[in-house]
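User: My collaborator sent over this chain with a note saying "see what the structure looks like." That's all I know about it. Can you take a look?
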Amino acid sequence: MTSARTSEEAPASAPALVDVRWLRAHRSDVVVAQVDDDAAAYHSGHLPGSLPLSTWDDLHERVRRGPVSQRNFERLMSGLGVSADDHVVVCSSSDPSHAAFAFWVMRLYGHRRLSLLDGGLPAWVAAGGELDDSGVVVATADYRSPGRDESVIVGRDELLSRYVGAPDPVLIFDCRTEGEFEGLVQHQLDVAAERHRVPGHIPGSRNLPSHLVLDGHRFAPRERLLRLFSDRGLTPRSDAVVYCRVADRSSMLWFTLAEIVGHPRVRHYVGGWAEYGSLIDVPVELD
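Assistant: Without extra context I'll predict from the sequence alone. Here is the result:
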C-alpha cells in the first residue's frame, strides 16, 4: 500500500467528518482504517487498500483495563505503516462508535490529520463503492506520538474531585439508554469488567442516549445536534464530560460535541459506568 502524502503535499486541513464524495476526491492522499469490534468484518469486505483495526484487540490494553498505552499505540501505528504525518480516515462496517473511539484514541495521542467517514462502509457501498476481501501489504513506519493530550480525557480521581456534584459550568453527559441511566435495566452484554456494579448514574449528569446523534449510520445535522446538547444545559461556558459503560457510545458523543458542534471543553471519562458503578463509597443517583 502506498502511504499518504506528507503534510507538505496533502491538503493543509480537512473536516473531522467527511463524506464519501470527499473521500473519493482525496483517496490517494489519505490512509483509511476500518475499525470494528474485531477483524471478522474487515475480512468479509473492506474499502480497497484500507487497514484493519480492532477496537478491543488493538485500541485497548491487553493486560489492564483502559485505552492502549502511548508505547503500544506507537507500535500499532508503526506496524500498520502509518506515520505521524499521514492523514488517517477512520470508518466502521456498521457501528460508528468503533470509528469514533479510534478517532478519540488518535486525538489522545496527538494525531492531528484525522477524519471520520460519515456513514462508514454502508455509505461507501450505497454510493457504488467497491469492496475488497484481500489483505493489505504495508511497509512499517516509525510512528512517534507527541504525548497524551490530557484535555480530551478525565480519570476517576479527577472526575470525583472536580466534576461530580459540581455546579455550572460543569456538565456531565451520560449517553447510555434511558433505562440504564435511571437504573432500571442493566446492559444485556455480560462483560467481565462490568460485573458487581450498582445501577444508576453519576449525580447531576444529563441523559443523552447516543443513538439520538445519528440518522441511520450518519450523524445528524449540526443544528439538530447543537439543540440536543443545549436542551440539556450546554452553553459556551460549559466544562463538559461524557461517559457511557465502556467508552464506546460515549466516543460518539465526544466526537459530536468536540468535532461537529465545536465545543472547546469536552473530556471523555473512559472508565464509564463499568468503573464508576463498581467504586466503593461514591455518590450515585437513581431516577
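A starting point for your reply to your collaborator: The two ends are 52 Å apart (CA to CA).
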